[in-house]
Amino acid sequence: MSEEKKVGWSFEVFPPKRTANISSIYMTLAELKKLNPDFISVTYGAGGSENCQATVEIANAVQNNYQMNAVAHLPCIGLTRQDVLEQLNRFREIGVNRILALRGDKPVSGEFKQGDFEHASDLISFIRAQNYDLQIYAACYPEKHYEAKTAEEDLDNLKIKVDSGVDGLVSQLFFSNTYFYDFIEKVRAKNINVPVEAGIMPVINCKQIERMVSLCNVKLPKKFTDVMSRFSDNKEAMLEIGIAYAVDQIIDLIANGVDGIHLYTMNNPNVANRIYEAIKHVIGRV
Ligand code: FAD
Questions:
Q1: Lowest CB count within 10 Å: 38, 46, 137, 229, which one?
Q2: Residues 6+ positions from 92 with CB-CB distance below 8 Å
């Protein structure tokens, strides 16, 4: 029998909207802890240092109250070098030494403060030059980033990014594993050798998918759209279908040697728990 590879297992959460009860995220974290993740990453609304407060607060809770590894997202669009140094110091003060270094999305409308960084790779080079002892993750796009003209151009840019000092990549969500496998083959052919965690999002309602497709530039396979259109009005069925689809994707990825699974939890610990129960033996977490 071949030796089993240790598969990474991690989650993404996001700060609840101001109107939501902030304590809901702490209940979510308590539940996610039971699912044994390698880390929990916390998103950060791009566009300036004033957005960081909730990210810092939640990353602090992940790291210090719940004793899990926190990965704090850091989108650099609109930030100055000084903003980034201040932000890194905040993370250091709370013992968070893992970040996901991002550019952030350019706003469709509205004024945006000009910052000191153009690409995530500029942020990563800047951070590496500070000699901080940080683990740095970055994003990658199996179906290409929406601004890149070609997949080849996007891969060249990914190579620049990884060579600027990345320890691991986390992928954009995708619904067809074929895209991911093709992507990984090209990534390795470019001599990009860091681990790549596959981003999986369980879709449990149709509104969620419409938003994701427009935001993330991902294609939906026919198998997926068929069930969505057939059961979109049936909440209970959609929950089961979303979980089953994600489990199916994950098992196939693991069978094909994926480095790790990064689950976009949508702050829903019940869905994460159902998926964990279905795959815990497959990822060797029992
Ligand atoms: P980059 O790596 O800078 O790439 C952006 C574009 O520029 C690409 O088209 C790339 O090909 C091109 N490019 C890159 N480097 C170069 C270069 N050196 N020269 C020329 N072109 C270049 N957004 C948030 O605001 N907050 C979050 O918390 C957040 N979390 C995310 C988590 C994950 C796992 C992912 C996949 C995305 C996340 N995003 C988040 C969204 C992300 O900010 C957007 O997708 C953004 O448009 C690109 O960010 P990036 O870091 O990949 O940018």
A1: 229
A2: 132
